[in-house]
Amino acid sequence: MKKIAFSLTLATTVLSAGLALSQAPDDASKIIRGHYQAILADCAACHTAPGGKPLSGGLPLETPFGQLIPPNITPDKATGIGNWTEEDFHRALKTGIGHDGKRLYPAMPYPAYTKMKDEDISSLWSYLRTVEPVFNPVDANQLPFPFNIRLSMLGWNMINFEGGAFKPDPSKSPEWNRGAYIVQGPGHCGTCHSPKTFLGADKVDEALQGASLQGWYAPNITGNSYIGIGSWSEDEIVQYLKSGANGHTIASGPMAEAIQASTSLMTDADAKAIATYLKSTEGGPTGKPQPVSASDPHMTAGAAIYHDTCSACHGGAGKGARQLFPALAGSSIVQQPSAETLVRLVLNGSQGVHTPEAKTQPSMPSLGWRLSDQQVADVLTYIRNSWGNAAPAVQVSDIASRR
Amino acid sequence: METRCPKRPTRRQFLSSVAFTVLAGSAAPVLARSISGSLPWEVRSADPPVQVRPGGWLFFTPEEVTTMEAVVDRLVPADELSIGGKEAGCVVYLDRQLAGFYGVSSRLYTSGPFLPGLPTQGYQKPETPAERYRAGLAGIDAWTRDNKGGKRFSELSPDEQDAVLKDLEAGKISISEQLDAKSFFNLMLSNTMEGFFADPIYGGNKDMASWKMLGFPGARYDYRDHVTKHNQPYPLPPVSIAGSTEWITR
Fold first, then answer.
1. Domains in chain A, ordered, with CATH?
2. Do B249 and A301 touch (CB under 8 A)?
3. Residue A142: enclosing H or E segment and its boundaries?
4. In this predicted structure, what is the pLDDT of residue B7?
5. Of the candidates A40, A234, B30, B171, which lies 20 to 30 Å from A97 by C-alpha distance?
6. C-alpha distance from B69 to closest chain A C-alpha (Å)
């Protein structure tokens, strides 16, 4: 009996020593760096379904061309990317061509990931090999003909895709360059925030100027002080990225998810770099349009609805209460060209994101039961055109489809 | 003869079961639960009230409606201050209440023993509000037929109606064997006031008439913009849970 116990102990010792030897010390730190790359790139945003196993495939993405399901990228050989090599992975991120030459759709933001450094991609690959393999078959391509022909992406890439690593601007600070790298590369901010061409590619000359997707409006995040984040200080941008809330607004929708899974877990230095870079960007209208007249019938009805329904939290003059109730007066989020996000917030309500820095989750109740389509339109027209705000009126026809 | 309860454990059984429980308890792993810290929340969650709409009667018979409308119009007469109880929808309010859980006292303990209580203890008898109205309204009409020349309560002049109500309130007349006239009067009075002053979504207080009369601002809950404005009237009109006519684009 004693003998058996001894040999078991010996075998265990030898085995663990062997394991330790096979993992070189810097592999561990490479995996950790890779995990941070996965946070920067927010892989989980698309590839992890709510409540699902990490990276084993996500919820369907509604694109203007049809539905795509983010595939399983765990190391499972049958249904994940267990058969891929590091070269396959590198090529997929750099050029959008996956294992066996299969072309990816640019819903996978390889036009942004192409700017990633080789060493960052290599670290990310090391990390992805350590994720628990999950058997979960995903039929990614749900697009209708002709978009379901993956080879069509060959033509798309010729027109829209420009590969190549991020080129630092030597005239700018290292911090600015770090921010630009994250925003344009792994962070792929433009995937949501940049307007798209009719082919679904980012309009490069209008980068980060706001775009509509999946029924939300990803706002202008350039340094524009009317409609972008120019009126936010760098610290306020950092606070927003780290906690999902600052004195100006509280994140909602897909950005709330991005903050939870990605930006709140970034280092302070990286969040600061992003702020520095975004503040330096330009784009969008600098002058405000003429606001809708306060005597307009939609404005007077909207004012009554606002004072009876919204002012309890947002204040009679739209000033809100720092970090608890977003300010509406002067808010660039409120004045975006499209009110899609606002319509959603009023109809559905919203809950602030839970982050290590902000654990209280202020939430807005759903008002869809209380307000008719016309009333939602009128109250939004009112908040978009009061207290110095100016933005196009919201039409009643914009509401029904969001219910 | 020794009698033993067969289910009673022996000392040995008891001690061994305690030992076993302690052993099993300490051997079982203590499972740590991971709590995300995120508060539960659902998109579009709401518990909207059901708006009572006038039209049709769920509880009252047509005769009862006529009598009740006459009663509420004496308890809240139309005058220069406000519309009357009938126009305000007090009977609609009461009809829906009596057809609902209030009418059958489904939220009250209504089994015996039934003992006379103190006035502060409230109503102590088995009859539900629905039963009291059914008997009480019939009793009032029966009493006026017998004592007011065959007329129903609604056919009396306002002054005569007031006199009957005052006598009910004072307990001077008896309208039913089981029903105490005084307590039935008080029931009608408090329910009429509820209908007149409650939120319009419950069927009464038409167009927030009573709130406008009082200057009550309605279903609001934040006055930060106004607390420092001493000796100034509150500027905003009342608002119901369901909204306000000001919300309609004109």
1. 25-160 (no CATH), 174-280 (1.10.760), 297-400 (1.10.760.10)
2. yes
3. strand A141-142
4. 62
5. A40
6. 31
Cα(A309)–Cα(A56) distance, rounded to whole angstroms?
Answer: 42
pTM value is 0.83
Query: Percent of chain A having pLDDT more than 90?
Result: 73
Q: H/E element holding A213? A: strand A211-213
Residue A346 C-alpha, separation from nearest chain B C-alpha, in angstroms? 9
User: What percent of chain A has pLDDT above 70?
Assistant: 94
Q: Assess B37–A contact: CB distance below 8 Å, yes or no.
A: yes
Structure tokens at A384: 């978009």
Return d(Cα B72, Cα B189) in angstroms, integer.
Answer: 8
What is the largest distance, in Å, between two alpha-carbon atoms of chain A?
95
Pairing type for strands A61-63 and A66-68 reads antiparallel
A vs B: CB pairs below 8 A: 71
pLDDT classification of B36: cutoffs 50, 70, 90: low
Tell me whether residues B249 and A368 touch, CB distance under 8 A.
no
Nearest-Cα distance to chain A for B157, in Å, is 43
Residue of A nearest to B217 (CA): A308
Query: Residue B218 and residue A186: Cα distance in Å, rounded?
Result: 52
How far, in Å, CA of B133 to CA of A88, rounded?
82
Distance from the Cα of residue A86 to its chain's centroid: 26
Task: Give B 136-165 residues with CB within 8 A of chain A.
Answer: none
Flag if A308 and B37 touch (Cβ within 8 Å): no
Question: Which run of H or of E encompasses A49?
Answer: none
Other C-beta atoms lying within 10 Å of the C-beta of residue A401: 9
Tell how far CA A240 is from the center of its chain: 13
Tell me whether residues A308 and B248 touch, CB distance under 8 A: no
**Domain definitions of chain B by residue range:** 62-214
CB-based contact A354 B38, cutoff 8 Å: yes
Nearest by CB to A365, from B46, B243, B249: name it. Answer: B46
Asked if A214 reaches chain B (Cβ–Cβ under 8 Å), the answer is no
Three-class DSSP labels, B46-87? CCCCCCCCCCCCCCCCHHHHHHHHHHHHHHCCCCCCCCCHHH
- Mutant choice from A292, A307, A348, A372 vs B, greatest count of B C-beta within 10 A: A307
Residue among B246, B247, B250 with most chain A CBs within 10 A, to mutate: B247
For the beta carbon of residue A319, count every other beta carbon within 10 angstroms: 16
Question: Which residue of chain A is at minimal alpha-carbon distance from B44?
Answer: A348
Q: Take residue A99 and report the two structure tokens written for it.
A: 């294992």
CA distance A186 to B222: 45
- Is the predicted pLDDT of residue A11 greater than 60, yes or no? no
Is the separation of the CB atoms in B90 and B76 below 8 Å? yes
Instruction: For residue A104, give the nearest of A126, A84, A122, A123 by alpha carbon.
Output: A84
Average pLDDT over chain B reads: 89
Of A304, A361, A374, the CB nearest to B246: A304
Please state whether B244 falls in left (phi above 0), alpha (psi between -120 and 50) or beta.
beta
Q: Using an 8 Å Cβ cutoff, are A323 and B232 in contact?
A: no
